[in-house]
UniProtKB/TrEMBL annotation:
Presence of keyword NAD: yes
UniProt KW keywords: NAD, Oxidoreductase
Organism per entry: Litorivicinus lipolyticus
Protein name from the UniProt record: UDP-glucose 6-dehydrogenase
Molecular-function annotations in GO: NAD binding; UDP-glucose 6-dehydrogenase activity
Amino acid sequence: MNLTIIGTGYVGLVTGACFAERGNRVTCVDNDPAKLDVLRAGGVPIYEPGLDHMVARNVDSGLLQFTDDVAAAVDGAQVVMIAVGTPPGEDGSADLTAVLAVARAIGAALTGYAVIVTKSTVPVGTADQVREAVQGALTRDVPFDVVSNPEFLKEGAAVEDFMRPDRVVVGTDSERARDVMSELYEPFSHVREKLIFMGIRESEMTKYAANAMLATKISFMNEIANLCERLGADVEAVRRGIGSDSRIGYSFIYPGIGYGGSCFPKDVKALVRTAKSVDFDAHVLNAVEARNELQKQRLVERIVEHFGDDLSGKTFGVWGLSFKPGTDDMREAPALVIIQGLTALGATVYAYDPVAMGEAKRDLQPLMDAGSVTLAEHQYAAAKGVDALILATEWNIFRQPDFDALKRLMAAPVIFDGRNQYNPERLRRRGFHYVGIGR
Ligand code: NAD
């Protein structure tokens, strides 16, 4: 099939590469010239395991190409996907500026029937706005359908998730569009049974409900962790105890320093706004967000309990910057909140991340210029001479470090484990002062 994807970020590029991998002719459109330069030169502007080879392979075979020309890319496409960002607006609602601008550009370029798909995460009712925007921009009388096909991939495992999804949700009220979408997803053989068709509003809501549920599990567990801390219980034992209940399960009940990333924070906020717009108080969602904001500060509070609230002259090593392992995405990363919290109290920070330091520079540059933050060459350089080490992102390389070497390197053997990766007893036996979350 001929496919056009507008917005070549984490979602658009993975989607484009994976559909090309299945033999479709895919044109990816973006309006960021720097991103297009990298892609056209055979590079991949984001870190996503397996993506670079897949992009290169499909560019070489001519199935995948990149452009900034919406009109040329839309002409002749059977499916046009909108995968641009929907960042939070000032009031927390999803900002649809890019989605609707793209919808108008598609309308102006349509020359024949096409299925226009919103892959971006958009509030319930957006498909109606997209349809109006396309309709209003048409230059000739061509039929089209608007379909909702939200994306559920996880950064860090995006290619694998796209190729083997738990489900593919398609919201449509058109038989013709349903046929096209079935054909599009058919080559993903294992997807066949996993294609779930539903109404458009239900599909739009499914994406928000899924992310809100996952964020709720995290905030719930962080709340239990905070209680455990005050009650002298170890939340890790509690986690294993409840996860073994098949109704609860083990996933997304890991206590930590709060959720980040480009999706959970903005999608919970947007759903709260959607609720407000229909005069509904989303009590649970408000609490999920409030707990998360507090949780991002929790490790700084524990550090202050240990060192006092004047951290001038103190240095800290931070392992991990991205909001989770497997990605270079720094959007809403809890590590940033911790670094900002520590430096605001006078501390100096040495930070290391195996892939996100380039991205992190954008946020940390002012602190780097002020001399409060230095990006270290490797993980042990970030621990050299520090008063404490903070684990902020549980990358594999941080899971089993050489603790004896660490102890020799650090000015004091103190570890704040924001991801409960280490065994407290074993560390204490090795002479470390250990602080985790909820234990
Ligand atoms: P992103 O910021 O990585 O990518 C968006 C891309 O769109 C950028 O490359 C940008 O240059 C481009 N763009 C913006 N306006 C444009 C325009 N007018 N014309 C052409 N290109 C334009 O965003 P993302 O993380 O890929 O997310 C995209 C959407 O998918 C969002 O709605 C997000 O909520 C949703 N989503 C993201 C993930 C994820 O893990 N990142 C997962 C599921 C759903």
